[in-house]
Amino acid sequence: MKKILLTSAVALSAMSFAQIDFSSTRFGVSAGGNYSGVKNAHNPSGKRFSMQAGVLALIPMGKSNQFFLQPEVQYFGAGETGKNKDAKGVDGYDAVYANNYLSVPVNFKAYFSEAESEFFGVAGPRFNFLLSQNVKNVPASKPYYDPDYKSDLGNPKLNGKAKSFNFGIGIGVGYSYKRQLELTARYDFGLSNTYPGLDYEPKGTSKNKSEQVLSLSLGYIFN
Q: Is the preceding omega at residue 44 within 30 degrees of 0, hence cis?
């Protein structure tokens, strides 16, 4: 909660120093691919390919045609698999731990100049609300990776259920063609614990289970 408040305070402070022109807001759509993983959660651990798609608003900040606030609402695939290249043939290699979110990134966006076609950078928080969790081929030796698992000791927290809400911070770069067609590469790093029921996995550790996503998306902004 403290991290959420700090992130929100930074965002509000940035907004307070700029004149935001909601009347000139433009809207757009975007879609792309995600390459995701989760640190310190499952073993074996590999990456997952998934997708994202959503809508965005581009809101001018200040009088120049260079700085913007860009909130978005997306379907956002994340999670991981067991496909570690060093674990072929190991129990759990074929596992899939798919987390699908309604995601709300709120980005500060800066074009490198006021030129019509130009590179840009984005940075800001991302808030994820879990829509579904699809888990397949859980390793027989680790049944608690299943989100519905209940231990013999009756401890409901010992399972692989993903948290219904998580958040992180993202940065990215992209190129805009005539301020309409835009290609963006972005890296999102989770700041919250994705799997609170796996706090001591792998054995002997209590490291945070942070979700990370590298994405490439194509957007179109309407006039």
A: yes
